[in-house]
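Support reply, case 0932

Customer input (verbatim):
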Amino acid sequence: MIINHKGIKRFILLIFFFVFSFGQGLPNSMALTIEEERELGRHMLSQIQNYFEMEEDSFVNDYINDLGSFLVQSLENRPFDFNFYVIRSNQVNAFATAGGHIFVFSGLIEMVDSVDELAAVLCHEIGHVTARHISRRIEKGKKMNLAIMAGVLAGMMIGGEAAAPIVIGSAAAGMQTQLNYTREDERQADQLGFKYMDRAGLNPASSISVNEKLRQNNLIGTNMPPPYLLTHPLEAERMANINAMLNDYQPKKSGGMAHRFEEEFPFFKTIVWAVSAEPRIAEQKFSARLADRPDSYVDHLGLGIVLKAKAEYPAAIEHLQMALPGVPDSVAVKRYLAELYLLMGKDQEGIGLLKEILEENSRDIAAMSILAKGYLDLEQYSEAISLFRKLTYIKPVKDDVFYNLGVAYGRQDLLGPAHYNFGIYFQKTGDPAKAEFHFNKAYEYAGGDLELKALIDKASQHRIRGK
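Our regenerated output:
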């Protein structure tokens, strides 16, 4: 895993700010308000994205967010809009932060064997969010020294060796127990997670099997427990409570959306492994499987993705084409193929495939982004600008959309909009000096364009307020 030490320092400073802002002046009987926690969550998300390498694959992100949305759709208590993320790291871990942001590591995805086991972890984290355990933990630490609080909060969320660089001093380790989830928190999250899985038509018994895998992970090969066990201790009492709930449980026959997630899970897990593992090891793994099962769609998909990353484009296309008939979400494979065609200079094939995807779903963000970048590379700037502008209206908007818009406008000598979009890009990526430079340049080139000047003024004010 890549550790961004600059991000670590920012993270500590951020916690200082929010502990000072939210931890002072509130009555001791109060936790954070919903809006305070939501705002804290937004800023923590930004810092975590700087600290960890986030998964960018569109199929992976669509799957984890579709599954998460499916799990929370029946919640009677939904204090936040939930968002789900995959982190590229072999750690066996998952955590929830303030404001409904839930992160799962690729190492944990590799460990689980079914969508039910993955959902069991997600539902437990959802339970912590809906019960507002995070807000209450912060409340308990309000009287702590600010420096200790900064390190403790960071260590509490991340857990394991990755947290070590940002836990400030030995005092933090001692004080962290005051902020960790309590036994009651874990018990309540187990109960809520059980209920959410039952409502979704998934098997709550998977809570037992996934926890057994975590225990085995602790026993095999190392005496260091997985980070997930450090932040969510697996005690006999928890297992006894889950077993007691299972005694009265009547399994439901899965169907509809639940069946879709079951069907797509092997492909999801394969793609996560293919994009996060060391390419040489991943290639060996998929090649060995195909030697035993030459018609395995899922292994052709994995090997095609690995070969694409290695720039072995013709072989990658061959394997992806062999995977295409057996992949439930064929759109994902078509997007990979379209990217490969464009990389190989087969522009008409790539653009044609992307247009075919967009005819079926005009809001396919991934296909639109690939097509826009293709037009940019082909110097078809008007077409590129049109698509990138559409992408700015479809949430969530990736930062590089604004950078690419700046490039496209600049190559057409439209310097006002070019600098404006570069300013937005640097503002979002945390470089206020460069953002200010580009906003000033944009204003200089705006001339009599009052609409652009208004946009620049609005963006500059947001920057000043730190939003």
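We compared this against your earlier run and they match. Two observations from our side: Confidence is low (pLDDT under 50) at residues 1-30, 144-151, 163-176, 463-467. DSSP finds 24 helices and three strands in the chain. Please reopen the case if you see a mismatch on your end.
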